[in-house]
Amino acid sequence: MKKKLTVKEYIYVASMLFGLFFGAGNLIFPVSVGQLAGRHMWTAIIGLLITGVGLPLLGVAALGLSRSDGLFSLSSKVNRPYAYFFTCLLYLTIGPFFAIPRCATVSFTVGLEQILPQNGDLQLYLLLFTVAFFIAALLFSLYPGKILTWVGKILNPFFLLFLGILIVVALVSPSAAPISSIEPLGGYVSQPFFTGFLQGYNTMDALASLAFGIIVVQVIRELGVTEPGAVASNTAKAGIFSCLLMGVIYVAVTAMGAKSRGVLPAAENGGIALAQISQTYLGRIGLLILAITVTLACLKTAVGLITSCAETFNGLFPKGPSYRVWAIIFTLVSLIIANFGLSTIIDYSVPVLMFLYPLAITLILLALFGKFFGHDRAVYNWVIGLTLVAALYDLLRTLPAALRSACHLDGLIEAVGGVLPLSGLGLGWVCPAALGLIIGLSVHFTAKGRSKSVT
Fold it and tell me: How wide is the angle at C-alpha 370 spanned by C-alphas 78 and 353, nearest 5°?
């Protein structure tokens, strides 16, 4: 039985893994971290790398090691109702609720918005742009062809080349400020590591790894490696290259964002920051090139997300709408949400990600170490159950202030936060998850001991 891939096969899988994860969020959030973290950038980037690079790799490995056929199969280790709930919510999050609309709004913010007259009706321009964007995305989703493969093979290297030029120019420019001289802002003043850690949630890559990781696992199996341990090992090894490349890009873009504070104020969001940096250092031509490449890259990502979401829901609900109907529904929902603008999408995605990420992290860790307790459902239920309660608190805590006030949640949030350890760091789920693990393992080994005594 084949135990490992060849060097050529490793490169192939690593390239595919990088292509699956690299999207607009992988650019706009690191540059924002750089601008806000300032001289605390290096501490913040460590936190960002853990959630933005390390967790996605573990998610893919978890699917291979647990012999799961996908996210629904993996989350079914808790129970089937939870599997439907978690699978649907995760795909809706990386699909029509946030990630797909973000593709369109990042394209508009980085590109068209920067060259439009500032006294024009930007909301109308956004509507016209998103209508055109999603018509193209839907057509490609309904009639996929070789053009997407061509765009992927040509565009990604071109985009990385242009990004590399922008980074080098921005870092060596005389106007670039020394990172040590930039004062941090917001949460980066007192908690740069944990703020960067939570900012990594926004890339959604750990969620994407659970949704799309099975593609990588299947490719490795098709290449002749079938033993679960070997699949996970080869996935991790192939992922080292892609994760190193992703990590290098994160560090470089974050440093670019920090140094840009020498000539620019901190922007409202990373999309605006990226556009302003590009225009500052490369002029309007640089901005135009960036706009075109980002738009095409985001279009390709949107097509992939629409396709995967429609296929998933068609599979989960075989008696429901057809693939094409799901694709149309998700495109229309994405179009509506995209017109709320990039900053609004980011603001409202944070509570959902604060809810989903603890559930994803615990599921990944349970799958990775499940062999030590035989993937006992009792352990999964206790850990996920208590994590879910704490994650619900994090969701409520991070809702926009106006919405929290309208729902009269501030008192409840303050009371729970006063007794829940680590809640101030956004990690209130850690202790409940650990408690669930202790209870679950106790139940497992107690039942195992009784079984042995009976036999």
Answer: 55
Q: Name the residue with tokens 């690593």.
A: 14
Backbone angles phi, psi at 445, to 5 degrees: -75, -30
Average confidence (pLDDT) over 230-243: 79
Q: Do 130 and 339 form a contact (C-beta atoms < 8 A)?
A: yes
Q: Which residues contact 58 (CB under 8 A, 6 or more apart)?
A: 206, 209, 364, 365, 368
Q: Tell me if residue 143 falls in helix, strand or coil.
A: coil
Q: DSSP string covering 173-209, please? A: -TTPPPGGGPPP-GGGTT-HHHHHHHHGGGG-HHHHH
CA–CA distance, 17 with 385 (Å, rounded to integer) = 31
Measure the CA–CA gap between 8 and 14, rounded to whole angstroms: 10
**Residue 446 CB neighbour total at 10 angstroms:** 11
Q: Write down the pTM of the prediction.
A: 0.89
Calpha distance 135→453 (Å, rounded): 65
Provide mean pLDDT across the span 186-196: 94
Q: What is the pLDDT of residue 154?
A: 66
Confidence of residue 428 (pLDDT cuts 50, 70, 90): very high
Q: Return the DSSP state at 266.
A: P
How would DSSP label each residue in 359-385? HHHHHHHHHHSGGGGTT-HHHHHHHHH
Cβ distance 361 to 208 under 8 Å?
no
Instruction: Provide DSSP, 70-106.
Output: SHHHHHTTT-HHHHHHHHHHHHHIIIIITHHHHHHHH
State pLDDT tens for residues 85-123. 999 999 999 999 999 999 999 989 887 787 777 676 888
How confident is the model over 424-449, as a mean pLDDT? 92
* Contact present, 71 and 223 (Cβ < 8 Å): no
With tokens 């493969």, the residue in question is: 149
Distance CA 38, CA 40 (A): 5
Q: Kindly report the backbone phi and psi dihedral angles of residue 431, in degrees, each rounded to the nearest multiple of 5, phi listed first.
A: -65, -45
Which is it for the CA torsion 382, 366, 48, 151, positive or negative? negative
Q: Tell me which of 354 and 449 has the higher pLDDT.
A: 354
Q: What 3-state DSSP class applies to 47?
A: helix
**Ranked by mean pLDDT, which of 26-30, 138-142, 307-311, 319-323 comes out on top?**
319-323
